[in-house]
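Milestone M4 deliverable, item 7.
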Amino acid sequence: MDALGRRILVAAFDGWNDAGEAASAAVSLLTSQGEYEKVHAVDPELYFDYQYTRPQASLDVDGRRVLTWPEATILRPAHPTRGPQLWLLTGVEPARAWQAFAAELIDVALREDITGFVGLGSMMSDVPHTRPISVFAGSDNEGLRVALELERSTYEGPVGILSVLAQKAEEVGIPSATLWASVPHYVAGHTPSPKATLALLDRLEDLTGARVPRADLATESAAWEASIDAAAADDEEMTEYIRGLERTRDTWDSPEASGDAIAREFEQYLRRRGDGPSKPGRDDPRR
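Output delivered:
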């Protein structure tokens, strides 16, 4: 647990890194369930494209119109404790000047004496909603991989802002890790995905040793799963597709499963779908 230290910055962003809103919802829950104070907010004029991420209009308690601009903000716990504590970095993925954006936020992390960085992300995957949500826990830091039993990603391809921040953190001596939840791709109409949010928070607590609230996520997760069950019950093709995903997942999870057996089962599953052999998606950090 001490590999990340006692002052850990947890980051999640709306956008490319946030399938099913699972990651941003995790940080939003942490914010709502704790007491935090703002440390730093970036200047939105520098980093956001307002045609892509538009300001939002709302009415305040007096009926006056208020504009809320896209932002990225670092929050610190309002009250220090003896155990590990979580600083929070939340906002919208920037549209420009990513290196300057990351450098600005990592400079703030250094001023706050942050000892570890954890990025939360979620991705659409070929997984069933009826099984536990898989969370990939990885790091490019060898010390963290050994201490926390993390994996090393072999993915090559386009990345999101989480990868940029993690690399910048490592460059200045802040050990970094990322957690990626796999959200069933066929549930896009059932966002947000509280089951994926719950899985991320469970793994975050395991990784950091900090106490992490869950609020009503267990109940919300059960309702989310039941709503998808109901939708699938009226669609025979979807029902069979989900059963195929379940068979593949159960094979992967079985104690006797070997790498060759898993590969054979996966290839059979692809042939049943008519896809033939394929590679993991480009957004999959486990590659």
